[in-house]
Amino acid sequence: MGSKYAFARATAVGTVTITFVLMLCLTSSFVLGKNAVPNHEHPTPSPDLYTWLDTLGATVHLVVGPVNEAGLRGTVATKDIASGELILQIPNSATIDVGDYSLPGAELAVHLFRRQLTDPKWNASFEPYWKSLPESGSLHSKEVFENPKHRELLQNEYLAAYAEVNANWTRDVFAGNASLEPGKMFPSLLAEKLSGADKVTFEEFKHAASLTATYSFVFPNKEGQYMRVMLPLFDLINHKGEGANSYVGKDSTTGSYHLIASKDIKEGEEVTHCYNWDNERNDYALINYFFFQTLDPPRLCALDLPDGNLDGGFTEPDDRYLPHEKGAIQELISQFEARLTTFPTTEEEDEKMLAKEGSKLDWISHRIIDFRRERKRVIRLTIERLREREKTAYSLLPPSTGADASKEEL
Ligand SMILES: *[C@@H]1O[C@H](CO)[C@@H](O)[C@H](O)[C@H]1NC(C)=O
Ligand SMILES: *[C@@H]1O[C@H](CO)[C@@H](O)[C@H](O)[C@H]1NC(C)=O
Ligand SMILES: *[C@@H]1O[C@H](CO)[C@@H](O)[C@H](O)[C@H]1NC(C)=O
Q1: What are the structural domains of the chain?
Q2: CA distance 173 to 116
Q3: What value does the mean pLDDT take over residues 56-72?
Q4: Residue 325 burial by Cβ neighbours in a 10 Å radius (0-12, 13-18, 19+)
Q5: Segment 367-404, tens digit of pLDDT
Q6: What keywords is this UniProt entry annotated with (predicted)?
Q7: Is the Cβ atom of 168 under 6 angstroms away from ligand 2?
Q8: Pocket test for ligand 1, best of 52, 116, 119, 121 (most atoms within 8 A of CB)
Q9: CA neighbor of 332 nearest in space, from 280, 384, 398, 400
Q10: d(Cα 382, Cα 374) in Å, to the nearest integer?
């Protein structure tokens, strides 16, 4: 496990032009990206949000609402939009810089509370935005992964430890005994005698840490420093890797933020963009943003890839990482088979658990069990795929046709 810095790392790549900054859905092992994740359980925001944005000079060609049969929340276009056209524009005055992009959510939360408490008028003016965000208890991420029972359900020691370190960090920044930078711990707000700081509860603080980490985007400010920015409405757009139809950019002259169509979009069609490609790996997406996807073709968790790790960067399709040589394929098949036997429950047992006790489970447990079921399913499908590949794979060993051949080999 790396330092806290690595844990809080943002990913994906930004391309800077003179007047316009595009956040492209490319990845490298480092740099920046869109890190917001909509909370699918949260109801649609009240009309106040649109009115407030309109007053500030926003342009809005999408609306928040259900985007599938199951009632998943997302955003849909309110008119036909051609590729290259603007879908959404919000001025800088409707956005919030919450701190350096490399800081963990806890430090960003201190930043946010400082601003709110220092300028209550400003905070009050943002009420429509605060109301559009998920309420405490309906958001989950590594910053608040404090329940050992939930971590246990992950069925993976590394993921559980990663979650625990991050949750501990949030607790310690609040208590005032850990921080990447002095002055970033919560008690500094008490020392500054900011009115209302003493009323902030740990529950509120944790929620803010999770929000600032998961509902923020990374962009350079005027000084070229990469900052995490909270962007109303943008943060309610769902992630899609392949097939996303828009991208986010910043106009560096006006400081406003834009969502541009990367394809023709029909009225009523869902608008999606790629937060970053690392989210195509379900373990990464779950621990950082608490969502996962069922992809076709499926993708292994980052931790299940040969040499995989949670730091991301495993962004291309699995074939890029899976072997082609017969011996290596066979070895990987046996590793995957062994892995499937080490989980305390099987894919079928997880499925049964969700079907039988699903309604009794709290939503966090439900999603974690669903995640690990999907993880096992993908390993199983990958074994099947490797078996197919094995049939026609080349072999590095020369064909040993008899005793002479094997002697020669020695
Ligand atoms: C900011 O304003 C909201 C109301 O919109 C309020 O609920 C919240 O307590 C305020 N935050 C702080 C830290 O004062
Ligand atoms: C988290 O904090 C608890 C309580 O202080 C401690 O026992 C545990 O070792 C910490 N976990 C990690 C992974 O650092
Ligand atoms: C901070 O304090 C808590 C509670 O006293 C303790 O569990 C934790 O290990 C401390 N963290 C650090 C980094 O010292």
Answers
A1: 4-278 (3.90.1410.10), 288-392 (no CATH)
A2: 18
A3: 91
A4: middle
A5: 999 999 999 999 999 999 999 999 999 998 666 665 55
A6: Methyltransferase, S-adenosyl-L-methionine, Transferase
A7: yes
A8: 116
A9: 384
A10: 12
Q: How far is CA 36 from the centre of its chain?
A: 7
Q: Is the pLDDT of residue 10 over 90?
A: no
Strand partners, 86: 260
Q: Is the CB of 177 under 6 A from ligand 3?
A: yes
**C-beta 172 within 6 A of ligand 3:** yes
**Which residue's entry shows tokens 């079921």?**
373
Which one-letter DSSP state was computed for residue 344? S
pLDDT tens digit string along 92-115?
Answer: 999 999 999 999 999 999 999 999
CB 395 within 8 A of CB 327: yes
- For ligand 2, what atom is nearest to the CA of residue 167? 1
* Structure-block tokens of residue 168: 């501990």
Contact 175, 103 (CB under 8 A): no
Give the integer Cα–Cα distance in Å for 103 and 216.
Answer: 12
Q: Is the pLDDT of residue 351 over 60?
A: yes
CB atoms within 10 A of CB 100: 19
Q: Is the Cβ atom of 176 under 6 angstroms away from ligand 3? A: no
Distance between CA atoms of 392 and 369, rounded to whole angstroms?
A: 36
In one letter, which amino acid is 150?
Answer: H
Atom of ligand 3 nearest to the CA of 177: 1
Closest approach atom of ligand 2 to CA 171: 2
Omega within 30 of 0 (cis) for the link into 297: yes
How far is residue 367's CA from residue 362's CA, in Å, rounded to a whole number?
Answer: 9
Cα(165) to centroid(ligand 2), Å: 7
* Structure confidence by residue, pLDDT tens digits, 233-278: 999 999 999 899 999 999 988 999 999 999 999 999 999 999 889 9
The band of 43, judged by pLDDT with boundaries at 50, 70 and 90, is low
37: nearest Cα among 147, 164, 133: 133
Could you tell me if 19 and 252 are in contact, meaning their C-beta atoms sit under 8 angstroms apart?
yes
Q: What is the mean pLDDT of residues 361-372?
A: 96
Contact 95, 75 (CB under 8 A): no
